[in-house]
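Re: the 251-residue chain
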Amino acid sequence: MLAKRIIPCLDIKDGRTVKGVNFENLRDAGDPVELAKLYAEEGADELVFLDITATHEKRKTLVALVERIAANINIPFTVGGGISSVEDVYVLLQSGADKISLNSAAVRNSKLISDIAEKFGSQCLVLAIDAKEKDGKWNVFLNGGRLETELDLFEWAKEGEQRGAGEILFTSMNHDGTKNGFANNALKQLSETVNIPVIASGGAGTMQHFYDTFTEGKSDAALAASIFHFKEIAIRDLKSYLHQKGITVRL
């Protein structure tokens, strides 16, 4: 059985790591390079680095910061935010990123998924989806949760897989920053809809929540931010807990 992955997420704004609740009320969580180094040393399997205002501010991801992070860690890391072309992906991979994450740009131009997959391979392409549940329907949102679309979460994930995405990173906007647990019902449905790994995001608050998303939600990986940034849960302790509960993790 493939090991379940624990992935700290660094949301970047103005060169600093930030964290909010339901995509709002951001507060400073520290220097991204220092946090990246710490998480690599603590046993994180991967890192995700999202320049959360790049698309909204219509600018490119912070390449210099990507280079600094790559120079300081030895685990795979994914970069997202402001990526809108094959050329952008080339620059980020050259700067040291292992994977890139597409979100708003993929919705606006779904051919971009296949173009990137053909050029660089599906293994380096993560389709990030921010969605909110309302009246039983999960709608996809763009621009860091600012813009609602009519797109259905599950249909979009399936299309993304068909176009060449190698993983789905699903963030439940209803659960983001609440620390009440992941959206496991939706995650389970998502895992049954696609044949590529699904990364759970939004809602981690306790070690039990990680266990629940791996068992009930059928997630392949779980991503969290504030509980790691503010030292509420240590990655080593979390992995030890999951291992004791029978979840396959890299220790």
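The longest strand covers residues 125-134.
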